[in-house]
Amino acid sequence: MANVLLINPDPKSIHPRYPSALLPLAGVLRWNGHRVEIFDGQFQEYGDIKLTEFDVIGITSLTGPQIHSALKIARWIKARAKSLPLIWGGVHCSLVPEQTAAHELVDVAVRGEGEEPFLELIEAIQKRQSLESVKGITFKRDGKIVSTADRDFIDLDKLPHLPFELLRHFNKYSNVKRKILYFQTSRGCPYSCGFCYSNRVHKGRWRAMSADRAVEEIKYICDTFHPETISFIDDEFFVDQKRVGEICQKLIDAKLDIKWGTSGRYDQAYKYTDDFFRLLKASGCTGVSFGGESGSTRVLESINKRITVEQIKTTVAKFKDNDLFSTVNFMAGFPGENKEDVFKTFDLIDELTRIDPGLMVNSISVYTPFPNTPMYKEALRYGFREPRSLEEWGAFYYNDVRNLPWLEKETKGLLKTISLLTECEFNRQGAFKSTRLFEDSPIKKIAYKGLSFLAKWRWRNRYFGFPVEWRLLDAGLKFIKSGER
């Protein structure tokens, strides 16, 4: 048995997020007899970690500011326990494993799914065996970088229950405050959108839990934590519509009083039948979130989104007609996109809101060039400066126009304003979309409402000049070192 500490470095999010990536790993480690603790840098001080209690430490990280937090913790650990193995995992390790493993604070980088390689690493470390027999890892040997063979994907049906009880500050996470728990029923995506890292991490393969295993986990979550809503955080939940139908029917048969939501694709959803919509509703589905990305056909084609503007409109109308909530996310700033394309997105948003006044437009985010994604080479060709180290990736921010040197100054200013403006309520009447996140602070709640009213005025009048309020908000985000712009 090994004593394992899994670390979730602070991702510098505006609202606390629980470390969903670590939970299945922790469950597998415990199932195989190891003692596991989870440290969450969003709430805990790494100076309180008792390093003598652990044999192995795992650190997860997404590309961006979470790496900065991870390096601080890793540096502190190595200064006090140089021989304690530091195993890094997460999305960034899968995107740039060699560069990650080359860093002095990384002993091993795990590529792809971490459950099986982490288990084998623990055994190899404890038995002082060579690491070369462990598939799916990258490490240093005699000053050279060694990458072992890729590993096959795991059978998701064999995963144990998610050990939420390992999260010491469970009630502080923003999604838990909204009585939402996240659960992943499948991994990977068969599509290859130009901006997305899923295809690189999962090699274009989609695999899923059976309907029986998924509903078993849902029952466990409901019986143990009594959430109001479960959010399925699959990369692509609706790939197998038959499986979705089976999950829905089993939820109905089990008489679980639970609401659920997930994400989907417009090219699938616009073909849903009325019978399928009735099944979704009867099982507790309240709505689906979609990636619309752009109102420009030219841009949709350039990013390989494989959807059409007409499919977006048809789907929004279908969800309204079937009394189901839908959310749409847009993005701007792609290589080759121009100001006219951006305003086509604005116009589409207005049209969609006329189709469904209750539509939630979640945001218009700024394109972020993640390493080794399908569009990454194009971003480099357009002038994106590639970070050359973990330190530089740790200073890399999401939703930041500074990542996009191809944009003209005026367009940069527009997107900077729009990306902040659409984080507030800007295009429809009704309840504010994020008010519940600010219930613990009346001042924040009032500020959010004020910004939302200003956002609606600006959007309605298409006036984005002199954005004093948004520059103040941006300055505030920089002051608190938020990883989100």
Could you characterize what this model shows?
By secondary structure, this protein is an alpha/beta fold. The protein folds into 2 domains: 3-143, 3-Layer(aba) Sandwich (Rossmann fold), CATH 3.40.50; 167-406, Alpha-Beta Barrel (TIM Barrel). The chain contains 19 helices and 15 strands. The chain starts with a strand and ends in a 6-residue tail after the last helix. The model has no long low-confidence stretch (mean pLDDT 92).
- Give the uncertain stretches in residue-range form: none
Report the count of strand segments.
15
Q: Which CATH-level-2 architecture of the largest domain? A: Alpha-Beta Barrel
- Return the CATH class of the largest domain: Alpha Beta
Please give the radius of gyration in angstroms: 23 Å
In short:
The chain has 485 residues and is of the alpha/beta class. The chain is built from 19 helices and 15 strands. Helix 1 crosses helix 5.
Note the main attributes of this structure.
single chain, globular, TIM Barrel, Rossmann fold, 15 strands, 485 residues
Topology readout:
Blueprint: E1 3-8, H1 22-31, E2 35-40, E3 56-60, H2 65-80, E4 86-89, H3 91-95, H4 97-101, E5 108-110, H5 115-126, E6 137-141, E7 144-147, H6 174-177, E8 180-183, E9 186-187, H7 198-202, E10 207-208, H8 211-225, E11 229-232, H9 241-253, E12 259-264, H10 266-269, H11 274-282, E13 285-293, H12 297-302, H13 309-321, E14 325-332, H14 339-355, E15 360-366, H15 376-381, H16 390-394, H17 409-421, H18 442-461, H19 468-479
Parallel strand pairs: 1-2, 1-3, 3-4, 4-5, 8-11, 11-12, 12-13, 13-14, 14-15
Antiparallel strand pairs: 5-6, 6-7, 9-10
Helix pairs in contact: 1-5, 8-9, 9-11, 13-14
